[in-house]
Amino acid sequence: MSDAIKGSNRIKGNILTTAGWVHGEITFAERISAVHGDHGGPELNRDDYILPGFIDLHVHGGGGKDVMEGGDAIHTIAAVHARHGTTSLLATTMTAPPEDIEQALRGIQRAVQQRGKGEARVLGVHLEGPFINSGKLGAQPPYARSAKLADVEQLEALAPLKLITVAPELEGHLELVRELSEAGMRVQIGHTLGSYEDGVAALKHGAHGFTHLFNAMTGLHHREPGMVGAALAHAHYAEVIPDLLHVHPGAIRTALRCIPQLYCVTDSTSATGMPDGEYMLGRHTVMKCMGGVRLADGTLAGSTLTMDQALRNLVGLGLDLADASARVSTNAADYLGLQERGRLAPGTYADLVVLDRDLNLKAVYIEGELL
After folding, report:
1. Would you say 350 is a known binding-site residue?
2. Cis link prior to 130 (omega < 30° from 0)?
3. Would you list the domain boundaries of the chain?
4. HSE-up of 84 (CA within 13 Å, CB side)?
5. How far apart are CA 187 and CA 177, in angstroms?
6. 267 labelled catalytic
7. pLDDT tens-digit series, residues 14-64
8. Which of 9, 108, 22, 4 is nearest to 66 (CA)?
9. Is 223 among the annotated ligand-binding positions?
10. Measured in Å, how far apart are the chain's first and last C-alpha atoms?
């Protein structure tokens, strides 16, 4: 049995550090104290891989629980995703009436304040509605509306809003994008009928990225580039769902060539980690079947993807392991400005995963705690 499984704070293997691969030993408590070994690739030995823990900025649920339930639901969700290598996440809301969103935020706030044993660190909230276009809801319930800064500030008082998805073409929303950006929030473009020009304008006003790229936005056409065209031409960051259902592998490869810091999210629902059947997604009833989650009309409604499978899918698309690791960890940390997560170096949090040579998860450490 390896040191990792015993729970030692000294683990040996192929360690992906900020300076590249090191074959050696990493020591840590809550934070990493040292990495010792020889630099070089892991190709010439058969030791385990030690990677930064996964960071998921778009999580709706898991283990039969939905973020919008409020209460203790987020603790179940954070524990389910931790078992798949996610060491930190953003709890993601749905478009809903104000009272539903406020209930969800109160539950999230308690989890932000205190991480439970065996749970991923809840960093805050990804507000994926209601400030989106009612004509591009995707699987969002029909409660979309426009917003002013005061509306967002009222929600921010309940829980830390780290990401906010906005449709920039709605009246007043370009100014909202600017105000939110100046207030230090990350603004993403999503659930939008906006044009290429709307996307470019939003980026100029301070928008930072795009929510589940390709999904719930105007597509690319050579005479009408749409919001997808704006992202591919101008974005530095965007999230994509690599479950191979939401986005064709060819489209993922296109985004990888165009968007330097493309990162992966699960957009996972309460059906994650559960058998086929009916589950809740906000106020929607959804069905898990045939490897996906859908509304009654067949619309994809989030996913059951986990981040360890996202990593394997990326490697299956041809990415080398270091690049794939960045897409499920480091890039998301950089996007939120988290220099103490998403990387293995002295002084950073000991958030790490241990995988065998087939990329199966063997151990997960969150802030030094072995799950």
Report:
1. no
2. yes
3. 3-50+355-370, 55-337
4. 23
5. 7
6. yes
7. 999 999 999 999 999 999 999 999 988 777 688 999 999 999 999 999 999
8. 108
9. yes
10. 16
- Lowest mean pLDDT: which of 2-11, 152-161, 170-179? 2-11
Where residue 290 falls among pLDDT bands split at 50, 70, 90? confident
Q: Which of 267, 308, 334, 351 is catalytic?
A: 267
Tens-place pLDDT, residues 317-331: 999 999 999 999 999
Annotated binding residue 300: yes
Is 216 assigned to a binding site? yes
Query: Three-state secondary structure along the chain?
Result: CCHHHHCCCEEEEEEEECCEEEEEEEEECCEEEEEEEEECCCCCCCCCEEEECEEEEEECEECCEEHHHCCCHHHHHHHHHHCCCEEEEEEECCCCCHHHHHHHHHHHHHHHHCCCCCCCEEEEEEECCCCCCHHHCCCCCCCCCCCCHHHHHHHHCCCCEEEEEECCCCCCHHHHHHHHHHCCCEEEECCECCCHHHHHHHHHCCCCEECCCCCCECCCCCCCCHHHHHHHHHCCEEEECCCCCCCCHHHHHHHHHHCCEEEECCCECCCCCCCCEEEEECCEEEEEECCEEECCCCCECCECCCHHHHHHHHHHCCCCHHHHHHHHHHHHHHHHCCCCCCCCCCCCECCEEEECCCCCEEEEEECCEEC
The answer for residues whose C-beta is within 8 angstroms of residue 360's C-beta and 6 or more apart is none
Would you say domain 55-337 falls under CATH 3.20.20.140?
yes
Q: State yes or no: 246 annotated in a binding site.
A: yes
Residue 3 has pLDDT above 80, yes or no: no
- Under 8 Å between Cβ of 166 and 191: no
Strands 292-294 and 32-39: unpaired
The b/e string for 108-146 (b: 16+ C-beta within 10 A; e otherwise) is bbbbbeebbeebbbbbbbbbbbbbbbbebbbbbbebbeb
Residue 215 annotated as lining a ligand binding site = yes
Give which of 249, 211, 203 is closest to 133, Cα–Cα.
Answer: 211
Beta bridge partners of 262: 238
The mean per-residue pLDDT over the stretch 85-114 comes to: 97
* Residue 248 is labelled as binding a ligand: no
